[in-house]
Design goal:
Distance between the termini: 63 Å
Structural class: alpha+beta
Number of domains: 4
Number of helices: 19
Radius of gyration: 30 Å
Shape: globular
Helix content: 25-40%
Number of strands: 21
């Protein structure tokens, strides 16, 4: 990142944070428990874009409807209800969830609104059965300071989460309703950040504020950062779902690079660029072609449509960011709008079984000059035409530089196109819910976790390394929650479990337990604290939870000391004369995980005379 002068390129960035709250659902009394077991029913729906209160149709909604998809919703008889299915009006807003949001308003020095009016926000991807999400403004004009950087927090909202995507297939999407309706708090900053590292640091600070309430969920998918980025002469781009704090600087850096590359392409193209919207059927040119994609297209009675892009030769293959080119952008637009597998373009051909002769024949058919390029789509007639239509629009946008859009973060630090930036027709009042009058006099503000760092060290006798590790890994809230209830096991042991259990289970069982709910940590550590389960069983218990969703407590129940003594005596009597090291090996092989290892060793030594 050192080769970019962020001040010179005019980088500005802001953050939206969406955090799940650890309460029941927002507009019904169903538990906020996300499930992945077999559902009890599946509901099939179609969603259609309609005019908003102002008479306009949201462009993102229109783009989604053009895909002609249907939606399947998985529901449960015991943890979802008619509210999630949009068959019953919403219940009154969950006051526990609202109290958490009011706490955050106080911690961020926000002005709480006099009345909370619930609104409907149009949702275009099928993730809500109603076609909209309920949201409400709670706080205004907050502010924080992070490492000397002052950041304004213009809005704090409470809203309901969307359904969980289960499957995206050709022509339909499948969602699970267990996630729909879980309360979310949404924080928005002004675009006050000027470097990628500042974006990460502000996101980390706001996450710490949220965890300070003690009532937010933890784990994969429970918090999402949407990062808005632009450079001078560029446009606002929303990177949606930038969850990994470590990758945020890379996503911001690469988006800045992408915008600079698009601006460079803009400067190459004439301002009066004219592309004719002509889609030519060139299927006959591919008779006998060896390309698997072309053969599959013909087998499915598809066609090959082509479009000439004047003056684009060499530009479609231009790398914008590592491993992503302008042609990748065109392809992403075609995939998202028309559901095609992608596009071919002249800068990458001959390739994919398409020969040099094919390329020359296509250029002749399209009357291409030396500096002209072309794009191809192989699919059904309707999808091919829709795909080339959006590629045409995206190519025309190149003369203006950077189009506003929503992009998806990728694991390699890049991003890909998701959908158009939503329009102004997205939100209107929710007429099924009463307004809510907030009362801050009833809200007790918690102490910020960062302010409790010294308290942790002194109160629990932790080393600097353990204390820093707990905060670095954002485990302060769950640490406090467990230590407040445990009376026998040491706080240092709780720290070690929270910090190392994931890697221990991975090493022994090759399982990833990062998505296991925190409630299991609290429940099992409390049983260890009460002597019901030995520490040695912890790794195997979490492996079983990962595999089955639960565990058989009786299988891991600790022996009483009297039972342990008797079992050790029996093992010793069966192995008379055995050396102590061999004897302790046999004892541990049979009793490991049933009692404290140190106690087993002491009793074996006592009764064997070792």
């Amino acid at each position: 990142m050192d080769d970019i002068d962020y001040e010179k390129i005019g980088l500005i960035a802001g953050i939206e944070i969406h955090q799940q709250l650890d309460t029941k659902k927002l507009f019904c009394r169903c538990p906020s428990m996300i499930r992945d077991d077999k559902s009890h029913m599946v509901v099939k729906r179609w969603l259609r874009a309609s005019a908003g209160e102002t008479g306009g149709i949201d462009q993102a909604a229109k783009a989604e409807m053009q895909k002609q998809k249907y939606y399947l919703y998985e529901a449960y008889e015991d943890t979802t209800c008619l509210v999630e299915l949009d068959e019953e009006p919403p219940h009154p807003m969950n006051r526990d969830a609202l109290d958490v949001v009011l706490q955050v308003c106080g911690l961020l020095r926000s002005d709480v609104v006099d009345t909370i009016q619930i609104m409907r926000k149009v949702v275009v991807d099928g993730s809500n059965t109603s076609g909209f999400q309920r949201t409400a403004l709670v706080g205004l004009d907050g502010n924080i300071e992070v490492d000397g950087l002052k950041v304004k927090i213009p809005t704090i909202c409470i809203e309901e989460d969307a359904a969980k995507i289960v499957e995206q297939a050709d022509g339909y999407s499948r969602y699970n309703l267990s996630k729909l309706g879980i309360p979310l708090i949404e924080l928005c900053t002004d675009p006050d950040m000027r470097t990628p590292d500042q974006v990460r640091d502000v996101a980390a600070y706001l996450g710490m504020v949220l965890r300070s309430t003690g009532h937010v969920k933890r784990g994969i998918g429970t918090i999402r950062q949407d990062v808005n980025v632009s450079v001078k002469d560029g446009a606002r781009i929303e990177i949606k779902g930038a969850q990994d704090l470590k990758l945020i600087p890379k996503w911001v850096e690469n988006e800045a690079r992408r915008q600079l590359a698009l601006l460079a392409i803009r400067d190459i193209l004439p301002s009066d660029l004219d592309i004719k919207k002509e889609f030519i059927d060139i299927s006959q040119l591919f008779a006998g072609c060896d390309s698997k994609i072309i053969k599959s297209c013909f087998d499915n009675k598809g066609i090959i449509l082509a479009m000439k892009l004047p003056l684009f030769a060499g530009l479609i293959g231009k790398e914008l960011i590592p491993n992503r080119r302008l042609g990748t952008e065109f392809s992403d637009y075609a995939k998202m709008a028309a559901g095609v597998g992608g596009i071919f373009h002249s800068d990458e051909l001959p390739k994919y079984g398409i020969s040099e002769d094919h390329v020359n024949n296509i250029k002749d058919a399209l009357q291409c000059q030396d500096n002209d390029a072309f794009v191809l789509v192989a699919s059904s007639k309707d999808r091919s035409e829709l795909a080339l239509d959006v590629v045409y629009k995206r190519a025309m946008a190149c003369k203006d530089g950077v189009p506003m859009e929503v992009r998806k973060p990728l694991p390699d630090g890049n991003t890909s196109y998701m959908r158009p930036m939503p329009g102004a027709e997205r939100m209107y009042p929710e007429t099924d819910c009463r307004i809510v009058i907030p009362d801050m006099s009833l809200v007790k503000l918690p102490k910020l976790l960062v302010e409790r760092k010294e308290e942790i060290k002194s109160a629990f006798g932790l080393t600097d390394d353990l204390t820093n590790a707990i905060f670095k890994n954002q485990l302060e809230a769950i640490f406090f929650k467990i230590t407040e209830r445990c009376r026998n096991i040491k706080p240092s042991y709780i720290c070690e479990v929270l910090l190392s259990l994931e890697s221990d289970v991975k090493r022994k069982h090759n399982l990833d337990i990062s998505d296991i709910d925190e409630k299991h940590y609290e429940e099992i550590l409390l049983k260890i604290d009460a002597g019901k389960i030995p520490k040695e069983a912890l790794i195997d218990i979490f492996a079983e939870i990962k595999k089955t969703g639960t565990y058989n407590e009786s299988k891991y129940a600790a022996f009483s000391e009297e039972d342990l003594k008797e079992k050790i005596k029996v093992i010793i009597s069966k192995n008379k004369g055995a050396p102590f090291n061999a004897l302790i090996g046999k004892v541990m092989a049979e009793l490991r995980g049933k009692a404290d290892g140190k106690l087993i060793a002491e009793l074996t030594k006592k009764y064997s005379g070792g």
